[in-house]
Amino acid sequence: MTSNREIHLASRPQGWPTDDNFRLVETDVPTPGPGQIVVRNQYMSVDPYMRGRMNDVKSYVAPFALDAPLDGGAIGEVVASEAAEIAVGATVLHGLGWREYALLDATAARPVDPGVAPATAYLSVLGMTGLTAYAGLLEVAAMKPGETVFVSAAAGAVGSLVGQIAKLKGAGRVVGSAGSPAKVERLLALGFDAAFDYHDGVREGLRAAAPDGVDVYFDNVGGDHLEAAISAMNLHGRAAICGMIAQYNATEAPAAPRNLALVIGKRLTLRGFLVNDHNDVRAAFVRDVAGWLRDGSLSYDETIVDGIENAPAAFLGLLRGDNLGKMLVKV
Q1: Res 2 pLDDT > 80
Q2: Residue 253 to residues 12, 196, 249, 259: CA-CA distances in angstroms?
Q3: Where are the alpha helices (DSSP H) in the chain?
Q4: Percent of the chain clearing pLDDT 70 (strictly above)
Q5: Does residue 46 contact residue 329 with C-beta atoms inside 8 Å?
């Protein structure tokens, strides 16, 4: 326990990130001060929102600093502690990924029980990913039983859970878009009523999958998906805007949606949200999801890349859509 490897942001991407935007740096393992702990990370998360933090622009979260480690969700074992409330050997969830060893205040870590669920589940279905799906669908979009739900990027970590939760909460029909025939097949296996490959045309695929229109749209993509959803949405339809991955790497303004005037006549609600605004539903989320996992009615997929040195490759793969479910790095 003498050497620590970290992934630093070496330069800010212009358009699509490349390997050159990242640097593997070796440092000393940190020593905790009063009230602090050192965590040996076991798994870390890579997420689409991280692309926005690589730009030096004002946003809802501060940009990553150059020549410093990136950060994000991680889980690991406490290997040194100067905090009475968290002992050595505890498994904790925290926000300092992209490194092998993390030094943080004990108040910034949340102990979890790896005996209740696999460690990786706390970064996906039982973590921010699951809460995003649950709160976005039920609180932001206020889905009602019997409604038709459309989910974009539905084979991803959030989207695959949104579709399943919608069915478990009584949706009449759930449809999803994905980026390959294999992913379409996976969505059908997860219980989606219909799914289509967006490469074959989003508007055409959605029209065939939801011929009676859409009441709720969970948007992870933006662009042509949002345009198609607006055209397909029924009166008083609601869209929860979670992400717009279609334009994260764009260097020009997006061409779509070009039909926003329909929002007026259809009396649509398009509402953006951040998961941290919905901690008030965390107890209900944990209760419901834990129960669904126990009885086998909810499934989740993971794509795991091995080695901290491969974290940039995992992130680039995420942006390309290489993952099924949650993209994680085994540190």
Answers
A1: no
A2: 19, 26, 11, 16
A3: 49-53, 128-135, 157-168, 181-189, 202-209, 223-232, 262-265, 282-295, 311-320
A4: 100
A5: yes
Cα distance between residue 24 and residue 310, in whole Å: 10
Q: CA 283 to CA 290: how far, in whole Å?
A: 11
Q: Give the pLDDT confidence of 202-221 residue by residue, as tens digits.
A: 999 999 999 999 999 999 99
Question: What is the rounded distance in angstroms from the CA atom of residue 124 to the CA atom of residue 299?
Answer: 11
Contact 328, 124 (CB under 8 A): yes
Residue 60 is predicted with a pLDDT of 87
Q: CA angle 245-247-250, nearest 5°?
A: 135
Sign (positive or negative) of CA dihedral 316, 322, 328, 329: negative
- Tokens (6 digits) for 55: 């730009």
**Strand locations in the chain, DSSP E?**
3-9, 22-28, 36-45, 74-81, 91-94, 101-105, 110-111, 148-151, 173-178, 194-197, 214-219, 233-241, 269-272, 302-306, 326-330
pTM given for the model: 0.94
Measured between its terminal Cα atoms, the distance across the chain in Å is 15
The contacts found for 92-96 with CB under 8 angstroms, 24 or more apart, are: 92/37, 92/39, 93/122, 93/123, 93/127, 94/39, 95/71, 96/39, 96/41, 96/69, 96/71
**pLDDT grade for 80, boundaries at 50, 70 and 90:** very high
What is d(CA 266, CA 23) in angstroms, rounded to the nearest whole number?
A: 49
